[in-house]
Amino acid sequence: MRQQIGSGRALDAKRQMSAHEILDAAALAFSERGYAATSIDDVADVLGCTKGRIYHYFRTKGELFIGIHHQGLEWALEAVGPTAARDDLTPQEKLREMVRRHALHMMEHYTYMGPGQGQIEMNLAGEGRNQDAAKAKILKMRRQFEDYFVKVIKDGVEAGVFRDTDVKLVTKAVLGSVNWMHVWYHPGGSRDTAAHRDDIAAVFADYAVGGILA
User: What does the domain layout of the chain look like in residue ranges?
Assistant: First the structure.
């Protein structure tokens, strides 16, 4: 569990649980309404509490957004990092598994990942308080996540497994296709099963690897 929430203030376990509940509610509200159209009152309505409880943990709507984005990136790094560190997989096996895990992560945490995709909204999130340090940390996490994919694709090119190509541009294309899932994927319905999610993730993984094989 995270040791910090929003602005970086350390919280004990009980207060972290309450703050996580608030982030869950805010993530749902932002994913349904968009950042600009969502108010603290809307988040309180989702949570079924007064907005005073939210202000106890998050001073502004911007802090809520940054907290959501930070948590989403933590989950993304946890989903992909262990596979990126493995040395028992070929580059194509590693890339396939990394894309598959990222796609599953996007579906599992769709309310967090949708709001976190907007760079413009990152700028809006600084409202009322200097958030430069928090935003810098988020951008560092983004680079770390992207670098996992850059490295495995570069390794594949050097090994002759992947085509000689612009590695960074291909990385953005691969991640862009998966990150776009937040636009069209919504849970619920008879088809939204673990098996169906696995099938979706496998399609994306095969597409990513097949598109750059030598």
Answer: 61-210
